[in-house]
Amino acid sequence: MSQRLWTPSTQRVETANLTAFKNVVEAQTGRTFTDYRALHDWSVEDIGTFWSTYATYACLPFKTTAAEIVSEDPMPYTHWFEGATLNYAEALLYPPDLSDDQQPAILAVTESGHQTVLSYSALRREVARAQSALRRSGFTRGDRVAVYAANIPETVILLLACASIGVIFSSCSPDFGFDAARARFEQIEPKMLFASGAYWYQGRRFDTLPTLERLRQHLKSLECTVLLPYPGEEPASSSSSFTGWSEWMDEGEIGDPVFSMLPFDHPLYILYSSGTTGLPKPLVHRAGGALIKHHVEHHVHSDIRAGDRVLYFTTCGWIMWNWLVSVLAQSATIVLYEGSPSYPTLETLWHLAERLDLSFFGTSARYIHTLIAQELSPQAFVDLSSLRTLASTGSPLSPQGFQFVFDHIKRDLHLASISGGTDIVGCFVAGVPTEPVYEGEIQGSVLGADVAAFDIRGEKVIGEAGELVCLQPLPSMPIMFWGDRDFDRYHSAYFDTYPDVWRHGDLVEINERGGVVIYGRSDATLNPGGVRIGTSEIYRPLESFVEVVESVAIGKKLGGDEEIWLFVVLREGEVLTQELRVRIEREIRTQESPRHVPKRVVQVIDLPRTRSGKLMEIAVSRVANGLPIPNREVIENPESIADIERTIAAMDR
Q1: Which of 68, 323, 365, 384 is deepest in the core (most CB within 10 A)?
Q2: Could you tell me the domains of the chain?
Q3: CA angle, 332 then 337 then 341, to 5°
C-alpha cells in the first residue's frame, strides 16, 4: 500500500480552482460530487457536455457558437466545436482575469543572469509588429513557419503572431543537429525559418550558423531566414544569407494585434515524435484543442491563478514549452529559463525560484533524481514560501523522488506528477490539488480523459499492469499527421492494437482510488519466460543504492525467449565490483521476484537520452540485440551509444 505523503488543507481545498469548477457543475446539474473521482466520472459520461460546460466556465473567446460540440466520427476523424470560431492568441493576450496590462506576461532569464521583462501590454505590441511583418512577407492562412530557436521572448512572440492570423508554427531547439532539424522541417515545407544564431549552455557559447546555412540550402521551400537575437548579445544584422530580426520586424506604431477568427480545428502548430524508431511523426494540433486542454490542466489540475509566476524548465523542442506558453490564458506570468539547470551549480533554479517568488515550478523526474544523487536539499538554502506546486514529467518519478520532494524541497507542497505526451500536447493523467498525494502515484486521470488500462485481451483491468488507453476522443488529439492524407500513419501509431481505442504505448497500473503508476513504455516491456515486467519494477529496488546514478533494463533476445540485462551508470569513482553486483541482484530479488533479477549487470559511462531528458530504453535494447538505431541525431548524447557498443563487444570476447 502506497504511503500518503501530503494532504491538502481544508482552506486549500475550499479555495482551489477545481472546487470552484465543481461548484458550478453541481449548480448546473443538480448533482453532488463527493470527491474528484465522481467529478471525473461525470466528465466522461458525456464528453460533449463536459467540454461545452468547461468552455463556458473558462470564458474562451468564441465569436460564433458551435452547432455541434463533438462529432460522431470515431477517432481519429473526430471534429470539435464545429461552426465555432475563436483565436488562440487572443485568448492568451487578453485573458479575462487580467486586471493590470502592466503585469509581466514574460520573465525571461538566461543562465548568465540576463533578464528580460515583457508586460502584457508590451507583448501585445510586439505580437502586432510580428503579425504585420508576417503579412508583409506574404504569409496567409495555412502557411508554415519553422523555428530553430532558444527559449527566449521572440519565440513566444512568433508563435502568437502566427496564431493570430492562422499561420502554422513548428519549432525545435538549437541544440538539435542538422539531420534532426532537417528530418522535421523538410516534411512540412516551411515558407520561412526563424533561428537563433547561437546559444549558451553550461557556460559555453555554441555557434549554430553553420547548421543554419545547411538548413537554408536544403529546405527548398524557404523564402527567407531570419536570425533571432540572443539575450545579452549584439543583435545580428542582415546579410546575404540571413535577415536580422530587427530589420524584419515592422517598426513604428502598429497598434494592437488584429485576430483572424478561425475554426476551433484550425491548425496551430506541428509537433514531432522523438523519431527514435523512424522519421519523426509531424503531429498537427488544432488551436482550440490545445487552448481548452491546456486550460483544464493549468486552471483545474495545476491550480494556476491570475498573477502567479510559472516556470517549466524546458526548451522549444519539448512539448512542455507549448504547455508553458498557454499559461498566459490564466492571466499569469510565464518564466522562460534559457540555459543549463546546473550552471553554475544545481542550486541555480532554486535561487531563481526564491528571487522571482515562483508559484509553480515544473521540471523533469531526471532533474529531481539528480538532486537526490547530489544530496542537494533546496529547503536548506532558499525560501520557497511562495511555491504552491511542483510538477514533474518526462519519465516516471520514483517513490524515492516523491519522498525527496517533501523531505528536502517543501513539506506543504502539491507534488503533481503528470504524464501524457507530444501526441496529445498535454496530459492523460495529472495532479489533483484537492486530493492526497501518495508515494509513487500520479493522482488521477485528467477531466475529460476517459483513461483505462487494458490487458492483452483488450479488457479493462484495475490493480494490475496494462496498456494505457483512451476510450473516447480528446480535443487535443492531432487533427492529422502532416502529409498523411489517408491517415495510414495515424492509424498505425495509435489504433492498430485496439480498434477505435487510442493505445498510447505506456505500461500503467490504475488502482481502486484512481491513482496511476507508470512502469515505462510498453514497447520496452520485459518478457523473460513469458512473464511481462515493467522496467520501473527493476529500477525501484535500485533507489537505495547511492552508487547507482541511473539505469536501463532491456530484454536480450535468445531465440524465442529473452533475458534481462541491466545497464548502470555509477557515481564518479565507483566501480561495479562483484560485491555490488550481488547486492543489486539480492535487492531486486527481495523487493520484486527471482524473475526480475537481471542475467547481466553492466557498467557503462552514460546512457542515451532524448533532448527532453528521457532515457532511451529502446535504443539501448537495439544496441544489445545487434539492431541498427535509426535517426541517431535525435539522441542528446550519441557518444553513449558508442560506449555501450564497445562494452558489449568486450563482453563477447
Answers
A1: 323
A2: 123-263 (3.40.50.980), 525-652 (3.30.300.30)
A3: 130
